[in-house]
Amino acid sequence: MDLKHAKKMNWNWLEKLLRRKKMKNRFFGDSNKTKGWTEKRLIDTAKFRKLVLLYGVILNHDAAYKYNFTYIYRKASEQGLSKELLANLIDMSAKKMFASNRLWAFVNKYFHKDLKIPFLFGIWTTKAWKQNLVTTRGKQVVADQLNGVSSTAVTAIAIGTGTNAAAAGDTALQTESTTNGGSRGAATTSHVTTTTTNDTAQWVKTFTFTGSIAVTEEGLFDNNASGGNMLARQVFSAVNVVNTDTLQITHKVSFA
């Protein structure tokens, strides 16, 4: 039953219901569509390291390990620090980022401005959440996986400095980062629950930086090194990272 048939049969109540559903889908998206979103956390690794050392954790002081967040976290866990305590220490070490809203996205798309005005264009937070776009090619990749046309899994997260708004036709990041610790790499993959059990694919990637980058875009790929197919992309207000900072990105795609 659609709006046309509802009108012919004078079913006013059904017509109103269909209009309401159509309006809801227009503004909030169809609840049955493939959707993606991410959470970003920016951590002062040097501060996190100092806090862990206060609890008597023994760490390697070699340059290769000194500000490696993954190494510090693993060693602290192995030496008895609980997940709850480590989560609190991460919170204490987190830096604020600007989590942009739809008005910011509109201004950025048409005027190419990154306006970090609190409440009007977003909020400052230590956990920046943002929806992202599953690309046209990304939907094809999912279809190829379902019927066995392709067995190449989407396993990589890449970041970049491009500012062009995400579009369905995107096949790559605008300006992918390859230096200062910002190179693409394999993410830790799993399934989590959003609506029904294990209906959401999840990727988690931690970047530890050796220099400054203004990170403004992120995407999912089926190649851990370069090229490949891009499943999803998002553009956001610049996250300005410096040497020893850690950026942890959790990317989810739901099929609910």
List the helices and strands and how they pair.
Blueprint: H1 3-8, H2 12-28, E1 35-44, H3 45-54, H4 63-66, H5 69-78, H6 83-93, E2 94-95, E3 97-100, H7 102-111, E4 122-125, E5 128-134, H8 136-146, E6 156-160, E7 185-186, E8 188-192, E9 200-208, E10 213-221, E11 230-241, E12 245-254
Antiparallel strand pairs: 1-2, 1-5, 1-12, 3-4, 5-11, 6-7, 6-10, 8-9, 9-12, 10-11
Helix pairs in contact: 3-6
Ranges with pLDDT <50 over ≥5 residues?
Answer: 1-9, 21-32
Provide mean pLDDT, rounded: 88
The rough form would be described as globular
SSE ordering: HHEHHHHEEHEEHEEEEEEE
| Tally of helical runs | 8
Profile the largest sheet.
10 strands, antiparallel
Radius of gyration: 21 Å
Please give the alpha-carbon distance between the first and last residues: 23 Å
Describe the structure.
- It is built from 8 helices and 12 strands.
- It is of the alpha+beta class and 256 residues long.
- A hairpin with an 8-residue loop joins β10 (213-221) and β11 (230-241).
- The protein is globular.
Short structural description:
With 256 residues, the protein is of the alpha+beta class. It has helices at 3-8, 12-28, 45-54, 63-66, 69-78, 83-93, 102-111, 136-146, and strands spanning 35-44, 94-95, 97-100, 122-125, 128-134, 156-160, 185-186, 188-192, 200-208, 213-221, 230-241, 245-254. The strands form 2 sheets. Strands 1, 2, 5, 6, 7, 8, 9, 10, 11 and 12 form a 10-stranded antiparallel β-sheet that branches.
